[in-house]
């Protein structure tokens, strides 16, 4: 009988250990808050959705549950601001917050989130460095010091390039972590061509292959193959401002830049003067631009065209990020462009400023 009891106790202990490993617990404290509610939320189609609610008692709250796979979660206090973004996995997590400085909330105990914190720390450093360079640029421009302004601009671009290299190395070094899939989807995907994105995605560990991030990345890889260099540009028809349909393939015989932009996109508007100059230089030689706007209102779209003096062809379905052409081309960030040869084949992607000017000078030699 004693042996049976011993075996039963041992079995229960093993079962308890296994159950603990398959569940998470979040124990939190918020200094300065005695009562209230904390909401555990996730994003569904880009919108926050509560998956659990905990009462705050004496400044403390607790969540328990199970994650099939680590994923991003958010904590919100009552109807106030979100005070934590973290990767939730099946582990014992501690959250320490202060009502007067919710942005400085500390989260410990999650191995997955520990990986994420390494990346976030580097990004915060980059953000500070970028702000310093922006201040230097603005200061130089205000004093008409073009040399200093140009140096700040070059340093800024170098910093962005270094960040891209760091991010790629980070996701490769942590290919077994879902954090890398998340970072690749939201930080790298719009900067890489299909082949390079595929080379990163294909090396993710099998255990994260079913995560929504890897699934979306694989879909992007397939989409980007359709718009790879050398591929025939996917054809589409969309109406211009007068309701007249323009078909991309009708422009064959010309060098065409399909330019995805919007009136609300700051970098797009900053790039427009360069595109205007290039268009004026090469249009008479057989260069055409088809601007595809991701605007939501016709008024904003037409005002930006007029204000920026964009005299080329323009189309839009005013569906914002659901723009049919943008979805067809896998565009998830703007500005984005595709340069087509006279046969409608893609010969350049994401060309801007001097890169675009250089490419066109090769296609239209004097």
Automatic annotation (TrEMBL):
CDD domains with a match to the protein in the record: TlpA_like_family
Annotated GO CC locations: cell envelope
Gene3D superfamilies xrefs: Glutaredoxin (3.40.30.10)
Location within or outside the cell: Cell envelope
Molecular functions (GO terms): antioxidant activity; oxidoreductase activity
Main location: other
Signal peptide: 1-20
Keyword Coiled coil on entry: yes
Coiled coil: 116-143
Keywords: Coiled coil, Cytochrome c-type biogenesis, Disulfide bond, Redox-active center, Signal
Listed name of the protein: Thioredoxin family protein
């Amino acid at each position: 009988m004693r042996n049976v009891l011993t075996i039963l106790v041992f079995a229960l202990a093993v079962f308890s250990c296994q159950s603990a490993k398959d569940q998470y617990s979040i124990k939190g404290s918020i200094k300065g808050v005695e009562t209230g509610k904390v909401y555990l939320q996730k994003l569904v189609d880009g919108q926050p959705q509560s998956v659990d609610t905990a009462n705050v008692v004496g400044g403390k709250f607790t969540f328990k549950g199970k994650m099939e796979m680590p994923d991003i979660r958010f904590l919100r206090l009552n109807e106030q601001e979100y005070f934590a973004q973290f990767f939730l996995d099946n582990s014992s997590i501690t959250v320490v917050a202060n009502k007067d400085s919710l942005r400085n909330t500390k989260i410990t105990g999650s191995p997955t989130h520990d990986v994420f914190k390494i990346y976030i720390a580097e990004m915060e450093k980059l953000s500070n460095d970028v702000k310093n360079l922006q201040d230097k640029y603005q200061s130089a421009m205000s004093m008409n010091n073009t040399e200093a302004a140009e140096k700040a601009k070059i340093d800024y671009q170098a910093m962005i390039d270094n960040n891209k290299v760091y991010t790629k190395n980070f996701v490769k070094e942590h290919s077994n972590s879902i954090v890398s899939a998340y970072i690749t989807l939201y930080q790298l995907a719009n900067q890489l061509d299909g082949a390079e994105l595929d080379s990163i995605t294909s090396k993710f560990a099998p255990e994260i292959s079913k995560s929504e991030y890897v699934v979306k990345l694989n879909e992007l890889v397939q989409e980007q193959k359709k718009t790879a260099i050398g591929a025939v540009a996917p054809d589409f028809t969309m109406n211009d401002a007068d309701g007249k349909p323009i078909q991309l393939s009708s422009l064959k015989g010309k060098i065409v830049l399909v330019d995805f932009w919007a009136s609300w996109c700051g970098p797009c508007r900053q790039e427009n003067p360069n595109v205007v100059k290039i268009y004026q230089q090469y249009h008479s030689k057989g260069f055409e631009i088809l601007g595809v706007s991701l605007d939501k209102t016709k008024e904003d779209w037409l005002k930006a065209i007029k204000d920026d003096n964009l005299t080329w062809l323009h189309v839009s379905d005013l569906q914002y990020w659901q723009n049919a052409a943008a979805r067809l081309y896998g565009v998830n960030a703007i500005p984005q462009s595709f340069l087509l040869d006279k046969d409608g084949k893609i010969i350049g992607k994401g060309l801007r400023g001097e890169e675009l000017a250089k490419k066109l000078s090769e296609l239209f030699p004097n």
